[in-house]
């Protein structure tokens, strides 16, 4: 339930922990604003990011200040890029028809690569993990899980393999060293809608709740 201690991961040491007990975005975190990259139907707003009561909230709802359009939230830990390490995030999704994602993104924005360690693809009963590398090649896997409940999602990124975990247990490993990213990346959280698609456009507000985040580096 709480962030794990510094010695929780063998042969790793704790480099960052945040349980969002502030009333503003912590130092090193930056909100997304404007039209979402790669998807002109999405609009990010910094006003949809709320830090309060020990939670970081990414909120999606019809925003009167944006012509009553569905507006989402996203942010990056762009002030703390790293190469290789482990990241664990305690989170849950409220509402549906919104794609919530927790991922590692290249610090210089030179996509690919990309490592998505928790992306629900507009669903509430499963999450996915995806690795993107050169030529938009992908390794994609699905985990059946209720994302509306609290879970701890994680990724262990090394030069030789990438390991995805949930609630402290591994659920998928990718061990193709030639396809693993080897450049500085940062942690991103975001929500996206797919409007005006009637299949995915939300019918009610939703939110991605982040309780805490921890990061480790291999010794």
Tell me what the structure shows.
The structure is a single chain. The protein is mainly β. The chain has one domain: Sandwich (Jelly Rolls). Helices cover 0% and strands 53% of the residues. The chain is built from no helices and 18 strands. The chain has strands at residues 12-18, 30-31, 34-36, 39-44, 49-52, 55-63, 69-71, 74-76, 85-94, 99-106, 114-119, 126-133, 137-144, 151-157, 162-166, 169-174, 185-192, 206-218. Strands 1, 5, 6, 7, 9, 14, 15, 16 and 18 form a nine-stranded antiparallel beta sheet that branches. Strand 12 and strand 13 (137-144) form a beta hairpin. The two termini are 25 Å apart. 34% of the residues are buried.
CATH architecture: Sandwich
Structural category is mainly beta
Helix content: under 10%
End-to-end Cα distance: 25 Å
Q: Looking at CATH, which topology would you report? A: Jelly Rolls
Radius of gyration: 17 Å
Total number of beta strands: 18
User: Unreliable stretches, pLDDT < 50, 5 or more residues?
Assistant: none
Oligomer: single chain
- Determine the mean pLDDT: 94
What is the H-and-E element order?
A: EEEEEEEEEEEEEEEEEE
Percent strand: over 45%
Number of helices: 0
| Overall shape | globular
Largest sheet: 9 strands, antiparallel
CATH class assignment = Mainly Beta
Structural domain count = 1
